[in-house]
Amino acid sequence: MSAEIETRLTELGIVLPQAAAPAANYVPYVVSGSMLYISGQLPMEAGKVAVTGHVGKDVDVAAAQRAAELCAINILAQAKAALAGDLGRIRRLVKINGFVASVPEFTEQHLVINGASNLLASVLGEGGKHARAAVGLASLPFNAAVEIDAIIEIG
């Protein structure tokens, strides 16, 4: 399956970045038994947060969806690091939790997190269909517009 995932990434024009180091006192991932827990990933691109501000004020839905895609790419980069480069060990993406910095009247967090859900399903195929939460909140670290964590079953 690793070759299939790598092929899909190539077809989508996605090059996974180096997995980002944690920004505080935590680890970027934990493997426990057959589960891989990925800490919250920000929309990092070229070493910096690419999409900042509040959705519904500074950031429109399309830009926020791009932020969610970047978070998903960074989740895959962390998974690759955790699995010694072998994405084929992914059996199923179990769940993602999506956090959207948004103004109080914004109610389309689910559409924002679709950016990540769509990308992960495209890359991982059937095993990329997952449960999720999409939550709006007042702010995120580094003024990021979106943050997403993940729970992945591995073999």
Describe the structure.
- This protein has 155 residues and is α+β, with helices and mostly antiparallel strands.
- It has one domain: RutC-like (60s Ribosomal Protein L30, Chain: A), CATH 3.30.1330.40.
- 31% of the residues lie in helices and 28% in strands.
- It is built from three helices and seven strands; from the N terminus they run H-E-E-E-E-H-E-H-E-E.
- A five-stranded mixed sheet has the order 1-2-7-5-6. A two-stranded antiparallel sheet has the order 3-4.
- Helix 3 links the parallel strand 5 and strand 6.
- The longest helix is centred in the middle third of the chain and has 22 residues.
- InterPro entries: Endoribo_LPSP/chorism_mut-like, RutC-like_sf.
- This is RidA family protein.
How do the strands and helices of this protein lay out in sequence?
Layout: H1 2-11, E1 29-32, E2 35-41, E3 44-45, E4 48-49, H2 61-82, E5 90-101, H3 109-124, E6 131-137, E7 146-154
Parallel strand pairs: 5-6
Antiparallel strand pairs: 1-2, 2-7, 3-4, 5-7
Helix pairs in contact: 2-3
What string, H for helix and E for strand, traces the elements in order?
Answer: HEEEEHEHEE
Count of the domains: 1
Question: What's the main sheet like?
Answer: 5 strands, mixed
Order of strands side by side in the largest beta sheet?
Answer: 1-2-7-5-6
Mean pLDDT: 96
Strand content: 25-35%
Number-wise, the strands total 7
Radius of gyration: 15 Å
Q: How many individual helices? A: 3
Domain Endoribonuclease L-PSP/chorismate mutase-like: 6-145
Pfam family, one: YjgF_endoribonc
Organism: Sinorhizobium numidicum
Protein name: RidA family protein
